[in-house]
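Final report, Chapter 2: Outcomes

The project's central promise was a pipeline that accepts a single protein chain and returns its three-dimensional structure in a standardized token representation, suitable for archiving and comparison. That pipeline is now operational. To close this chapter, we reproduce one record exactly as it appears in the project archive, with the input sequence first and the structure output second.
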Amino acid sequence: MNARTRSADVERGRGHVGGHTLVEMLVVAAIMIVASAVSVPYVKAYRAESHLVGSARLFKGRFRLAHSMAVRRGVYTAIRFEQSGARWRYSIYVDGDYDGVQSADIASGRDPRVAGPFPLDSGADGVRVGINPGVPAPPPDSGMLQPGSDPIRFGSGNMLSFSPLGTATPGTFYLAGEVRQAAVRVTGGSARVRIMLCRGTKWVDQS
């Protein structure tokens, strides 16, 4: 190969790196940057939703535990939601004098605490007890939920009670995430615990 041929080959190779032209590599890099910018919000939303649903499932497990205790022991068992400053906690109590779990009996010690108190936010990042703005009420309710209104709706004493027959106090409590709203709902007759997640304006069953 003479010097002129080698020089021509070098000139042709200046625009190639590892078999690819510099232009091709720049196009690939631009595509990767755009894809990364588009995917970051979705990854963040997925992570926030996972924290929210994970917290709700933790509470669902506690509710099932209280339900199981009531049926197994043949005694009323209740989860009581208690506010300490700006934070919410919950504890499990059992009926000690055969008249149901009552706030006065808890205060006197007749209805003892058997578990808790546990933090109601479960320690998950970005999850709190509350209602985000612009969230519709979960079906079969209608209208909009009001931010700042009571997020725990189990009777007047904020207690979810399970009977020895397996029934429960019907009600709902709400967990707010960074981008999503969750609801943990208990059906009275069957004591079924459902987790519902609001995506945009639509509630989706996560049970």
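Archive annotation: The chain has one domain: 20-205.
This record, like all others produced under the grant, will remain available to the consortium after the project formally closes.
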